[in-house]
Design a protein that fits this description.
With 228 residues, the chain is α+β, with helices and mostly antiparallel strands. Helix content is 43%, strand content 16%.
C-alpha cells in the first residue's frame, strides 16, 4: 500500500476524531477509537490512543485482519480493542469504517442491556429500522466479547451499529464518515427515546410504516436536488 494513500486515510481518521470531539457526543474523557479499512487489501488503520482529542496522523497504526501490527504503533489500552475492529471487517466486508465510543445516552442502553426500540423516525431513515441490538458482555477486547459481537453481526443484516453490553457503542459504515454519522444518529435517537420513558415509554413505529418511511425517503433521494 502506497504511503501517500495510507496518509490520505490517516487524514480521514484524524478529521473524524476532530469532528466527534467538536460534536459533544463523547464522554468527558473523549474516549473512543476509529478504524478505516484500506480498499483492495486485508488491512485497516486504527487509532492507537484512546483519547480522540489526542489523535494525530502519527498515532494511527496499520493492522492486518489477524490483528497484527504492520506499521506505526499502538498503546496497550488501544491494543486491547484491535480484534473488535477486525471482526467488523471480517463479518461485514462492505464496511470501510468502524467507530467505538461511550456516547452517554446510547451507552446507557448498553449498560441496561436493553436494545434500542424503533421509536424515532431517524432510526428508520438511517439504516436502523430493525433497532439497535445488544452484544453480550465479555471483558474488553477478549475473545468472548469478539465472539458476542460476531454473533450479532452475523444474525442481523440491516445494521449500522450495535450496543456492547456494560461497555459502549460500535458503529460502522461504507467509510469512516458514515460510521461517525451512525454514532451521531444513534446517540440522538437514544437521547430522545430515553426522555420518552419519562412520559409513559416510547411507542414503536409499526413495521409497515417503517417500510413506507424508507420508500418515501428513497423516492425523494432519487429525484435529487430541485431548484426554482
Amino acid at each position: 500500500m502506497a504511503t501517500a494513500k495510507l496518509s490520505d486515510y490517516r487524514k480521514i481518521i484524524a478529521d473524524a476524531a476532530e469532528r466527534l470531539v467538536k460534536s459533544g457526543i463523547l464522554t468527558k474523557s473523549n474516549h473512543g477509537n476509529i478504524s478505516a479499512k484500506i480498499p483492495g487489501s486485508d488491512t485497516f488503520l486504527l487509532t492507537s490512543v484512546s483519547n480522540l482529542a489526542q489523535i494525530t496522523m502519527d498515532n494511527i497504526g496499520l493492522f492486518d485482519l489477524e490483528n497484527n501490527l504492520l506499521d506505526g504503533s499502538v498503546m496497550p489500552i488501544s491494543a486491547e480493542i484491535i480484534p473488535m475492529h477486525g471482526i467488523v471487517y471480517k463479518t461485514r466486508p462492505d464496511s470501510g469504517g468502524a467507530l467505538h465510543t461511550h456516547s452517554p445516552f446510547a451507552t446507557a442502553f448498553a449498560v441496561a442491556s436493553r436494545a434500542m426500540p424503533v421509536s424515532y423516525e431517524p432510526m428508520v431513515r438511517f439504516g436502523m429500522a430493525e433497532g439497535v441490538p445488544v452484544a453480550g458482555y465479555g471483558p474488553r477486547g477478549s475473545q468472548e466479547s469478539v465472539d458476542n459481537i460476531e454473533k450479532v453481526l452475523n444474525g442481523q443484516d440491516n445494521l449500522r451499529g450495535i450496543l456492547l453490553e456494560n461497555h459502549g457503542v460500535l458503529t460502522f459504515g461504507a467509510d469512516v464518515p458514515a460510521a461517525v454519522d451512525a454514532n451521531l444518529v444513534m446517540e440522538e435517537c437514544a437521547e430522545i427515546i430515553m426522555y420518552a420513558y419519562n412520559l409513559g415509554g416510547p411507542k414503536e413505529i409499526p413495521v409497515d410504516m417503517r417500510v413506507a418511511a424508507q420508500q418515501r425517503a428513497q423516492s425523494f433521494a432519487a429525484i435529487g436536488e430541485r431548484r426554482a
